[in-house]
Model the fold of this input.
Amino acid sequence: MARMDDAPARWTRATAYPDMWTDPDDDPRTGEGAGPDGEQATLRDFLKSYRMTLRMKCEGLDAEQLARRSVPPSTMSLLGLVRHLAEVERDWHNWIREGDPLPTLYGDPDGDFNGAVADPAVVDAAYADLEREQAATDAALAGHPDPGERVGRDGIAVRELMVHRIEEYARHCGHADLLRECVDGRVGQ
Done:
């Protein structure tokens, strides 16, 4: 077990605000001017920001670092989070679509985390799965511009689905902050 003094020192790339992940002028999540108009555009903008945050938390790490588990007995890792969110996107898509649900991506209920192993091919596949599943869910929701519309077999409101997606990414970005800091000391923002 690592001692406290064996932990990586906290660090950041930010220069103007050394307690931040990146300087505000360099942060790709911030746009110019006022935020988007309308409920749907606002929800999509928040979702986009959290998706980008997750990618930022993983950037620059190799397969071993991405697959590194937090603390026993947890199976959580940054790579596991990427795989988990791909699985969750597929599940949300299943809530919307008609017909039989698509099968899970990683098998058993904990396959997303248990299969997050330090292999570059697994990392590449996880990112490809996430991008594909995000695009599929986004495309399915694009056909439903009214946030109050109820979709799928269970009649979930588009608004509820969008807020749930934002909540899921936000929660896991918090996990990603801590996981990244354990890997190499990079602080969150």
Remarks:
- Residues 46 and 92 are 17 Å apart (CA to CA).
- The chain has a mean pLDDT of 87.
- The chain has six helices and two strands.
